[in-house]
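Could you help me review a protein record that somebody else here produced? My question to you is simply how this chain folds and whether the tokens agree. Thanks in advance; the entry in question is below:
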Amino acid sequence: MKRIVVSMMMGALLLGGVSNVLAQNEVNDRQRNQQKRIGEGVENGSLTAGETAHLEKQEAAIHHEVKTDRKANGGTLTAQERRQVNRQQNRESNRIYKDKHNGKTQ
């Protein structure tokens, strides 16, 4: 019985660590993906210089916030911080889409 309880506790600890790593990877993957989308918009001319500058500034602000939050929390984001970053990335994703599809070209 004791062995089962210890095994379950170890599994829970490992799962918690894995979920934290997965959440960090999700934030990083989204940042890379959104940078790629901005780059594609520049390459194909669907983003103007002004739109690109604004999107890059927003991306940099989100990246800086994530970096600061991770530094304050020993390299990880809290659940609340992840939710906040996710909302910010959702808004930024919508801005990228709108700017790429607004008919303005470079």
The first helix runs from residue 2 to 44.
